[in-house]
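tool=predict chain=A
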Amino acid sequence: MEATVSLIWLISGYIALGIKAWALSDVLKAPAEAFPFLNRQTKNIWLAITIGSILGHILFSPWGFTGVIGLIACSVYLADIRPKINEMTRR
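tool=predict ok
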């Protein structure tokens, strides 16, 4: 039973890392000119957030404070900012 729970936590940690990597790759592809028009943070700030979330995930823990906050931040980018940039740039 304990091994199954550990496996679930391990797999969910890799999924969380994948979400963070997806957010980072999308920020890298997005044009910097699109961010100011959304009245949101700049591309450099989103790069710092996504890179920081991946570093926090790797250095500390996927489910520690930095891991969860980083996952939330990357999810906000993917759910809120990314669709607006895609709509604006027609990607």
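The helical segments are 2-29, 34-37, 43-59, 65-89. The chain is about 80% helix and 0% strand.
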